[in-house]
Amino acid sequence: MAHVKAGGTAKNIHDSPGQRLGVKLFGGEKVKVGQVIVRQTGMTKRPGVGTSISRNFTIHASRDGVVAYTKRRVRLFTGRSVSRTEVSVR
């Protein structure tokens, strides 16, 4: 009776593609309505004037203009104040 003996298990075969996260448009670049400015997981960068944030934390332009990045102090739930980057369209 012809058969194949046990070959064991394959453990390192699952691999997922990269999510292509990061800054898509840098400060000083022109942007149109709806264009993606930043793709991120979590709110590492905060939306400012002229931008909106979607459910997966992607920051989009809500008007035409020029992208600007500024530092802003944000108060955490614990009361501690930390510096965060704010993305806006001027």
By DSSP (H or I, 4+ residues per run), the number of helices equals 0
Uncertain ranges: none
- Main-sheet strand order equals 1-3-6-5
CATH structural architecture: Beta Barrel
Give the radius of gyration: 21 Å
The CATH first-level class comes to: Mainly Beta
Mean model confidence by pLDDT: 91
Number of strands: 8
Query: Mind summarizing the main beta sheet?
Result: 4 strands, antiparallel
What is the CATH topology descriptor?
A: OB fold (Dihydrolipoamide Acetyltransferase, E2P)
Structural class: mainly beta
Helix content: under 10%
Strand content: 35-45%
Shape: elongated
Reading the helices and strands in chain order gives EEEEEEEE
In whole angstroms, the N-to-C terminal distance is 77 Å
CATH superfamily: RNA polymerase II/Efflux pump adaptor protein, barrel-sandwich hybrid domain
